[in-house]
Amino acid sequence: MIFICNVANQPSVSGMGAFAVAHLLYSVTFLSSRYATYSASSLNRFLYLILLIVGGAFYIYLFPFLQKAPNSDLLTPGVGIYFILITIMAALAIRTRHAATLLGSLSFMVSDASLALQVFKVLPPIEHGQIYVMVTYYLAQLLITVGDIKAVENKDDFSKWKRS
Fold first, then answer.
1. pLDDT tens per residue, range 99-122
2. Which ranges of 2-98 would DSSP assign to H, the alpha helix?
3. C-alpha dihedral over 71, 72, 74, 78, to 10 degrees?
4. Cα angle at 64 between 59 and 65, to 5 degrees?
């Protein structure tokens, strides 16, 4: 939940909305034809369940702090929707069966969770907390990009092999 904060350093609903759209676009990418379609294995279902439990538990833990935030009437449901979207993105990353894509999605979740803990004052101010958020955020972008490039390369290799 990377937020663009306003001048008073309060979370911005529009910033959260922009990142929610990014998660939707990643989700659509993970569903695209560049990733091979696999049937859901029992391991995948187990990982989906873990993601759902972790995402839900984190939101429940964060809920009382959201209630104290300015604009809580917008932020509380907005953060809930955001958690649903990022959890769906991570679940679809599992489906891709690309380690870099999955690790990137999980790094994105860690980045957003650590930011939420700081923005909603769940934790006391963390020295260099923003650096941790940004390192995990950029790591997420890098890993998702690498996974996507690998998916395209594998698709191209498979297409060449199939034609020969």
1. 999 999 999 999 999 999 999 989
2. 13-30, 42-68, 72-96
3. 130
4. 85
